[in-house]
Amino acid sequence: MGGLGPEQARELAMLSAAIGRQVGLLVDRQGRPEMVLVGDAQGLYIPELPRARRFAGRLRGLRLMHTHLAGEPLSQEDLMDMVFLRLDGVLVLAVGPHGQPGDVTWAHLNPPGPGAEPYTVLGPLPLHRLEVDLEAQAAAIEDELARSGGALSADGTASGDDARAILVSVSTEPRPVQEAHLQELAALAATAGLATAGTMVQRVREANPRTIMGKGKLADLEVQALQADAGIVVFDQELTPAQMRNLAEITERKVLDRTQLILDIFAQHAATRSGRLQVEMAQLQYTLPRLAGKNRALSRLMGGIGGRGPGETKLEIDRRRVRERITRIKKELEDLRRRRGATRARRAQAGLPVVALVGYTNAGKSTLLNTLTRSDVLARDKLFATLDPTSRRLRFPQEHELILTDTVGFIRHLPAELREAFRATLEELESADLLVHVADAGHPELEEHLRAVEDILREMDLHELPRLLALNKWETLEPEQALALQNAHPRAIPITARERASLRPLVAAIVARAFPGWSDVTYDPDGLPE
Q1: Which residue of 190, 306, 392, 418 sits 20 to 30 Å from the alpha carbon of 316, by its own alpha carbon?
Q2: pLDDT digits over 100-157, tens only?
Q3: Which sequence spans correspond to the domains of the chain?
């Protein structure tokens, strides 16, 4: 029976009864013991295991066999160990009152499938009735897992074009709200280069301060990630440093939160010196409180001449270097701000009105700028395709012109580390004469997006600037939806950013605000301002 015959079972039971402790073996697929474990009467502690087979073979390549002194069958703790350590399986041998071997219980993980349970438990039953070829069973499970997804590489990412991730929401908000937010998280993940392999939603009264979710739910998440071949787990909520550390200890998968995902996207899309500095500073500010306890090696002491005695720990040195780098970046950003301020001052002296496009990310601001100015600013169906401000001149036949500026897209629950980066990026708005708030009319969370933009403008003391509301992607609406939106926002201007003809009312409204008293503007969609 897979390395545990009647004689071995008898010896294991007698030894466990004699010392009054649980005894266990970690056995490889050739039936060779890799590790002997001795616990107490209630349980076993399994030390950190080698990662050799973690990604190469999907399962660990080890099974756990151990005794239970009170004759109880396999416990929930055994199942948790099997899930989190990705063992081939767990076998529990009940020990009778006189040290005789009793019934056995065997559990193993299941491959993915419609309605499949995460694991199967067989028993308790007599040892001779457990007719399972453990090696063949583990190999069959891995074959099935391989058919459902590609093998993972050593760093936890997929071997294909994109890494695969499970997206998770743990919140007090209603489930439909969480599901809508996960759709946005999926868009963020796609922008960052992640493929969504599955989602999990849990509504809680209060988040677990240690791991954000309970261990049972974590086990379900681990099984889902294993079955979906996902090497990364992304939480929609921001994780505390303690939660991040605890999750890293529990699971061997890479764990990210929403803030890290947004920071990664910003890092990919920052094209200018200013943008790159802002992102680096945000990343350092995010990392600083998370340095503590990140690795035991961080706490080793310095040695050598000048470093004897307590000295500075490696952790303290890391923190000091991060703070020094943040200070240097702030000085560089201040110099760049002064230069941008001089540019804005020259524009003001030239008397050019400034019109800034603002709005939720992926609302169509860059597309609108391109259509109006016949330019080729990057415009993609991805979140945060634009990070650095982009300005273009918009000329009218009457020899008037204005500055049209595209800005970074806004997003709900803006991470604290990014607020300063946003504020620096949005400095262009401080000199704006008019804001054009571009919104995706067809988005199911339109009203929430409108509120998020208004909240950020208010936080940055920009809410008193005059603005127009342009409802983009109007062509995607059904007639009854369009009518409802017109009633809800009677002053909004419907547009289709890609179609020049649809922009006539918006251009007329911009002209009326930017050039008060200038009523002789002529507008021809085919001869739109150059």
Answers
A1: 418
A2: 898 889 988 887 666 667 788 888 888 888 877 777 888 887 777 766 554 433 333 4
A3: 6-148, 163-265, 285-331, 352-527
Identical fold between 163-265 and 352-527: yes
Question: What residues in the chain have per-residue pLDDT under 70?
Answer: 1-3, 50-57, 112-116, 146-162, 271, 292-315, 340-351, 376-389, 397-399, 416-417, 419-428, 517-530
Superfamily of chain region 163-265: GTPase HflX, N-terminal domain (3.40.50.11060)
Q: What is the C-alpha to C-alpha distance for residues 61 and 49, in angstroms, rounded to an integer?
A: 11
CATH number listed for the domain at residues 352-527: 3.40.50.300
> What are 128-136's contacts with CB under 8 Å, separation 24+?
128/1, 128/6, 130/1, 130/104, 130/106, 131/1, 132/1, 132/2, 132/106, 133/2, 134/2, 134/3, 134/29, 134/63, 134/88, 134/89, 135/2, 135/29
Strands 390-395 and 401-406, how do they pair?
A: antiparallel
* 401-406: strand order across its sheet: 390-395, 401-406, 354-358, 434-440, 467-472, 493-494
Residue closest to 411 by CA, chosen among 290, 256, 236: 236
For residues 82 and 78, give the distance between their C-alpha atoms in angstroms, rounded to a whole number.
6
Pull the structure tokens for residue 159: 């071997």
Beta bridge partners of 37: 24
- Residue 138 CB contacts under 8 Å (≥ 6 apart), including other chains: 29, 59, 61, 63, 88, 89, 108
Quick one: CA dihedral 13, 19, 21, 26, positive or negative? negative
What whole-number distance in Å separates Cα of residue 330 and Cα of residue 323?
11
Give the whole-angstrom CA distance, residue 141 versus residue 157: 21
Structure tokens at 246: 């605890």
Tell me which residue of 404, 384, 437, 434 sits closest to 275, measured CA to CA. 384
